[in-house]
Amino acid sequence: MLAIPSPSSAQAVVGISVRIGPPALPVYAQPVIPGPGYLWTPGYWAYGPDGYYWVPGTWVEPPAVGLLWTPGYWGWAGGVYVWHGGYWGPHVGFYGGINYGFGYTGVGFAGGYWRGGAFFYNRAVANVNVAVIHNSYHTEVVEHGEVSHTSFNGGTGGVAAQPTAAERAAEHEQHVSPTALQTQHERAASTNREMLASANHGRPSVAATSRPGEFHGSGVVSARAENEHEAGARATNEKSAEKPAKQQKGKQSHEGKSKPEKAEKSKSKPKD
User: Fold this and answer.
1) What CA–CA distance (Å, rounded) separates 130 from 112?
2) Confidence band of 225 (pLDDT split at 50, 70, 90)
3) What pLDDT is stored for residue 145 in this prediction?
4) Per-residue burial over 6-20, b = 16 or more CB atoms within 10 Å of its CB, e = otherwise
């Protein structure tokens, strides 16, 4: 049973519409998780008075046990790009078919699951330190077809995706708005000139952070060139969990639903 605070209605449009589409999603690595219970929230392009600016991906503590994050997305409608805000809920809903990476392949979420009040992380897409995070498993997220960094749904060049029946159902469940730290994180990005697309040309110096609002320090990861050499970018988590995880891109065979091959909790399979 979920304890859901501050419920909001089904996924809402924030009321921001723009005639020019957002830039492509930058390519970046995932910083190591700061501790148990944090969930990954992908970075995204937001819009302000000076144009698009990047809101770094970050690890966030959910507002309640059992909740999952559905990322926001830009969608083409009525001749403009409209922002559909993200939300917390018991299931992951429609996020435009956007491939945000790290388990968000465009449909569903393959980064982990809740069980018995604890979150179990898929090490194939989540950068976890197994010396600290004892609830983990490894299920590969298979990439199919051409990798896409498109950041909007519909329109010319956009992702041509429609909600599945499960995603439509999730949209009508009870939702919780972004946490105060998430809101502050976006506000901090909006006041940082380096986050403007016009300044960083799609490669922000702070593409992801370990915690919301921390734009400096060892937990900060910058964007890289799409074709940049990645050999040695991340050792396996069992050997070293201090190196950022490689961003997973592309669809997977089971529509983003993470089916663990082998779950580990203190090196044993979790019991219901």
Assistant:
1) 14
2) confident
3) 56
4) eebeebeeeeeebee
